[in-house]
Design a protein that fits this description.
Layout: E1 19-27, H1 33-41, E2 53-59, H2 61-67, E3 83-84, E4 90-91, E5 98-104, H3 107-120, E6 125-133, H4 157-161, E7 173-182, H5 184-188, H6 192-199, H7 217-220, H8 223-226, E8 230-231, E9 234-237, E10 242-250, H9 254-263, E11 277-279, E12 283-287, H10 290-293
Length: 303
């Protein structure tokens, strides 16, 4: 009898959610990785069809590898070193031990579930970084452009985002999580044409230019060159200070990190968009299959 395929964390693919919270945790002194994973595994999504919340659990790759010896795709490691371009532009490394991404239809239920999760992890891990986000004009980021134009369809996304069956970490996914702050005044001082040239596509209907500049964001993050990813980016922040939470999933670390190096201007020109938005954080997490996470729960058979 063939082994059942691993069950992924389906919150990765829960499109259409209006409110999000990203909680990154650091182990408390004296706490053990197994305690953290067990406490996270005991978290449950609310059993309701109205106002429900999706939970996605990610772990620092080295932490998960210490518990599951063959549980990671090849080459996966944390974001321990900044990505530095030749002109000094830097994508900082701010790796933590775990991330909990909550998404739902309204912020009140996300807020309540986030507070409950923090209480459940008290004494084991503390919140080291957090962000909340929400959609802007349906599918646009705060530059005014459509975000995720190159995303695969929901039917194709698992092939891009999940580690294939039979490989280490099967059913899991590699998550790159960053927060980028926008220089709103500088960006809005550009004409529409200048913005489109920086992005490499039209602002209204997101049509890619055939003769786009080599420094454009589309050119420097070309998935046909670096490998395809599944993005769940969202705007974050306040009216006066805001930007984009980059949430990128892939079956391996390679396409994500190659894209960052390209944007920073390593082995090519720097991404023009990085002159108007600044990365504040950077972390890689492994999002294990739900069936693998549940093995660490106090009641592994609980739904």
């Amino acid at each position: 009898m063939s082994e059942a395929p691993p069950v992924p964390q389906l919150g990765i693919f829960a499109l259409g959610t209006a409110s999000h919270a990203y909680l990154q945790f650091a182990l408390e002194e004296g706490a053990q990785p197994r305690q953290l994973v067990g406490a996270l595994a005991d978290l449950r999504e609310p059993r309701t069809t109205i106002g429900g919340v999706n939970l996605v659990i990610g772990l620092r790759p080295e932490l998960w590898a210490a518990l599951v010896s063959d549980g990671l795709p090849d080459g996966l490691r944390g974001f321990e070193d900044p990505v530095v371009g030749p002109d000094g532009f830097t994508m900082p490394a701010s790796q933590h031990d775990a991330v909990l991404w909550l998404s739902g239809s309204a912020y009140d239920v996300v807020f309540d579930e986030a507070r409950s999760a923090i209480k459940a992890l008290a004494g084991i891990a503390r919140v080291a970084d957090e962000a909340s986000s929400w959609p802007y004009r349906h599918d646009r980021d705060l530059t005014g452009f459509i975000d995720g134009t190159e995303n695969p369809s929901l039917a194709e996304a698992p092939e891009v985002a999940l580690v294939p069956q039979g490989e280490p970490g099967a059913g899991g996914s590699v998550l790159l999580l960053q927060r980028w702050a926008h220089d709103v005044d500088a960006w809005e001082s550009l004409s529409r044409e200048q913005q489109e040239q920086a992005m490499g596509r039209t602002k209204g209907d997101s049509v890619e230019f055939q003769d786009k500049p080599g420094t454009s964001h589309v050119a420097r993050s070309d998935q046909d060159e670096f490998g395809h990813i599944f993005r769940r980016n969202m705007p974050y922040g306040t009216v006066t200070e805001h930007g984009t939470v980059f949430v990128g999933f892939a079956a391996t670390r390679s396409p994500l990190h190659r894209m960052l190096k390209s944007m920073a201007g390593i082995d090519g020109p720097r991404d023009e968009l990085t002159r108007y938005t600044t990365p504040l954080t950077g972390a890689y997490y492994f999002v294990p299959a739900l069936s693998d996470i549940r093995r660490f729960a106090s009641d592994p058979d609980a739904g």
